[in-house]
Amino acid sequence: MERLISVCLWLILALNLVSRVAGNAEGDALNAFRINVFDPNKALQSWDPTLANPCTWRNITCNVDNSVTRVDLGNANLSGQLVPELGQLANLQYLELYSNNISGTIPEELGNLTSLVSLDLYLNALTGPIPTTLGKLTKLRYLRLNNNSLTGQIPMSLTTIMSLQVLDVSNNQLVGDIPVNGSFSHLQPISFSNNRLNNPPPIPSTAATSSGDTAIGAIVGAVVLFSASAIIFA
Ligand SMILES: *[C@@H]1O[C@H](CO)[C@@H](O)[C@H](O)[C@H]1NC(C)=O
Ligand SMILES: *[C@@H]1O[C@H](CO)[C@@H](O)[C@H](O)[C@H]1NC(C)=O
Ligand SMILES: *[C@@H]1O[C@H](CO)[C@@H](O)[C@H](O)[C@H]1NC(C)=O
Ligand SMILES: *[C@@H]1O[C@H](CO)[C@@H](O)[C@H](O)[C@H]1NC(C)=O
Ligand SMILES: *[C@@H]1O[C@H](CO)[C@@H](O)[C@H](O)[C@H]1NC(C)=O
Ligand SMILES: *[C@@H]1O[C@H](CO)[C@@H](O)[C@H](O)[C@H]1NC(C)=O
To answer: Per its UniProt record, what InterPro entries does this chain match (predicted)?
Structure first.
């Protein structure tokens, strides 16, 4: 009997330990970010990694299951870099880090944040490419990466995000074409301005109007569209 009680106690202790470690995983991910940034205004002072979860930390919001849904740190005067661990916040919906002094690259692991609705990294000092993995963010509505120093091309994968309402990549050093896709047409032109992008391809509907004949115009439009995509995919 005594033996049974001690086994039970040991089990309860072990389970408790496991659940605490699991509960801390998101806190650990955020703490990895905290120790990687310079925080002169002490915006992250309340981020105590010894607490059971990060839900009471300032500018962090959790759901009822104590899983992080928001990180609101716009205008916090943070310097330093993002960390791949941020990709572990499985229920994160809002990652707001705009108007800081964050440098380095955007971790491709952010493509694992499949609950993300808003990714706001504008007005920072980010370099390197826009990760192709961001195309996996199927719930994303706001993607604002403007006013950084991002290079490379705009990933074609972004055109598969049907939920996207706002895409702003203006004021970077992006090159190449704006992906030709119906899902992007309503976003031009301000969202892409002040980069080193090629001129946007002609829009077929303009050809239809100027020809004065809708049938011929539609054919001209289709040919333009076809050759544009042939050039792009060649
Ligand atoms: C961060 O939290 C503080 C205190 O709750 C609040 O005053 C501030 O507006 C928050 N910052 C952002 C960007 O939400
Ligand atoms: C931001 O931090 C820098 C030090 O890195 C400091 O000089 C500056 O005053 C801070 N700006 C604000 C608005 O707090
Ligand atoms: C911005 O970050 C860079 C490098 O990370 C640093 O040298 C600079 O002092 C920071 N500027 C401010 C205003 O904090
Ligand atoms: C997150 O993304 C990276 C790179 O995109 C990948 O290698 C990694 O396996 C992913 N991690 C999880 C837990 O899904
Ligand atoms: C973004 O960058 C452009 C070009 O340098 C500048 O004119 C604009 O004021 C910047 N936006 C903000 C909000 O600072
Ligand atoms: C382009 O847009 C269509 C729908 O407008 C979508 O089905 C497709 O996945 C998008 N992307 C590519 C790369 O074709």
So the answer is: LRR_dom_sf (IPR032675), LRR_N_plant-typ (IPR013210), LRR_R13L4/SHOC2-like (IPR055414)
